[in-house]
């Protein structure tokens, strides 16, 4: 019997030493599906929440990848590396003391909106080429600054080992933030250098590590049981219900006017995304209200099929 297609969101607890692409491959093999993606890379060193998209859910990645993320980050001060984490080559050493009080005084400077220059060893593409591939060739190119937001930066632990300060932080930040760059920049600001020595992502948006499936648990049956529906993953978006007789038109990208809409929110702003669902509650598409006065909805991303779900 052919395996049933799976369309939804899966939360995995990534182990250290594996790339995000390694995890995608593992889930592809476990499910027999080719269409598997993720919403944000975790470095091989890092562990924790990796949000995967299966089947038609690969179309909704943009709605999840910029969700706030929470990390527990371990840092060592007095060294800096070429990758900004402990896996890299040491390029700077310092004996400048870093006290707990100095860290507490510094942290407000790195809270709120800050600028970061992405590290060379990263998946960001410039001119169509991932930076990490250029770094492997020994090249370093200019990278534009990016604005990111650190919503919370909390010092959880501080200790001295072998003469070097070690700290553990809880970081709640916007999508696109590089925590190793945050640690690197804090070290530079103190004149001591700093390197990320451990990183665990504990939350992405509403998804926490307590919900996550481990790689060892990831067989098809367990994945099906833990799969989050696309509708559930997008529950923060308002919903519009269309008449079942118009589903075919909608799936073909046709605009639906007010006469074909059974229910909608009282107030929806034009050009904001809504979930477009059938009378049976099946998610069909993500659309935009193109005319607030007449309440026309145009599908932008179709996630339903001829069988609706």
Automatic annotation (TrEMBL):
One of its GO terms (molecular function) is RNA binding. Its EC number is 5.4.99.25. Residues 28-179 form the Pseudouridine synthase II N-terminal domain. GO terms for biological process: mRNA pseudouridine synthesis; tRNA pseudouridine synthesis. It catalyses: uridine(55) in tRNA = pseudouridine(55) in tRNA. CDD domains: PseudoU_synth_EcTruB. The active site is at residue 43. SUPFAM superfamilies: Pseudouridine synthase, PUA domain-like. Residues 180-218 form the tRNA pseudouridylate synthase B C-terminal domain. It comes from the Bacteria. Keywords: Isomerase, tRNA processing. The keyword tRNA processing applies. Pfam families: TruB_C_2, TruB_N. HAMAP family: TruB_bact (MF_01080). Belongs to the pseudouridine synthase TruB family. Type 1 subfamily. Responsible for synthesis of pseudouridine from uracil-55 in the psi GC loop of transfer RNAs. NCBIfam families: TruB (TIGR00431). This is tRNA pseudouridine synthase B. It comes from Candidatus Aquicultor secundus. The gene is truB.
């Amino acid at each position: 019997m052919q395996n049933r297609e799976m369309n939804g969101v899966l939360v995995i607890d990534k182990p250290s030493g594996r790339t995000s692409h390694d995890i995608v491959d593992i889930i592809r093999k476990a499910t027999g599906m080719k269409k598997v993606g993720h919403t944000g890379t975790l470095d091989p060193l890092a562990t924790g929440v990796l949000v995967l998209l299966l089947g038609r859910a690969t179309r909704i990645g943009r709605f999840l990848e910029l969700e706030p993320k929470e990390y527990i980050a371990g840092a060592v001060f007095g060294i800096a590396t070429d990758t900004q984490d402990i896996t890299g080559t040491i390029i700077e050493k310092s004996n400048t003391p870093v006290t707990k009080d100095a860290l507490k005084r510094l942290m407000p400077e790195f809270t709120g909106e800050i600028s970061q220059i992405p590290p060379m060893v990263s998946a960001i593409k410039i001119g169509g080429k991932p930076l990490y591939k250029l770094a492997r060739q020994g090249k370093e190119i200019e990278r534009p600054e990016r604005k990111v937001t650190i919503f919370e930066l909390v010092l959880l632990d501080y200790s001295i080992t072998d003469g070097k300060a070690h700290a553990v932080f809880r970081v709640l930040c916007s999508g696109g933030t590089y925590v190793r760059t945050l640690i690197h920049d804090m070290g530079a600001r103190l004149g001591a250098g700093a390197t990320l020595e451990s990183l665990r992502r504990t939350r992405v948006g509403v998804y926490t590590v307590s919900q996550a499936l481990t790689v060892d648990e990831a067989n098809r049956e367990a994945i099906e049981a833990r799969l989050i529906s696309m509708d559930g993953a997008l529950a923060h978006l308002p919903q519009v219900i269309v008449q079942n007789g118009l589903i075919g038109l909608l799936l073909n990208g046709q605009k639906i006017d007010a006469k074909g809409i059974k229910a909608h929110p009282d107030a929806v702003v034009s050009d904001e995304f809504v979930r477009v669902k059938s009378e049976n509650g099946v998610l069909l598409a993500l659309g935009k209200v193109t005319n607030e006065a007449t309440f026309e909805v145009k599908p932008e991303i179709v996630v339903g099929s001829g069988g609706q779900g």
